[in-house]
Amino acid sequence: MPKMWTEHRQAGADWASAFMKRHKEEISMRTPEPTSLQRMSSLNKHNLFYDNLEKVMKKGFACERTWNVDETGITTVQKPARQIAQKGDKRVGAIVAQERGTLVTVCCSISAIGNHIPPFLVFPRVNVQDHWRLTLPPSSVVEGHPKASGWMTQENFTSFLKHFANHTRPTSESPVLLLLDNHKSHISAKAINFCRQNHITLLSFPPHCSHELQPLDKCVFGPFKTFCNQASDRWYHDASNAG
User: How much is the pLDDT for 201?
Assistant: First the structure.
């Protein structure tokens, strides 16, 4: 063992470099994703979510009757795509609508076999405007926000549940299972009573675990936001929209 290891009570940088070279097929340097202590500690083998899910599934919910719901915020200012620039340029600009965008909440729901219902949107306005619906998918629902912030509220989520029931048609013979996180906007007496009366069973993910358990977060919202940014970029680069 080198003498400096004893003096400094640690291995040197040369050892670390050699160690990485010896194990380059098994390990690599990665930039970690910031994860809160609550998320780290909540997602463990003692988590009871899958036990609860197994108990609920014994009631006979088919894949097409098992749904997931979540919402995400979309800003009206896109993140510009990468573009070719001359080497040495320190700053490369791209046109956007304004410096800071307006937040619009999009609430989506998908089933275990990939079916979906039209989106439910919450705009940061008190009153609904007809032109908001012009480019939305058919049967989409748009609501304003009582505090004009654009975030989902308990009243908005109860409206979404009515929208959800209209498209999934739950009955006593064919009930629906709805998986969701336990955000405060999702948990209200009015929403729970509506689900009980309309044969919708709610099962929530444990706190601070949606980053791994929420299907929409894992594989839908990321590509969706990428496509939104690409569509905005194409619109700005279209010569017919100049000015």
Answer: 94
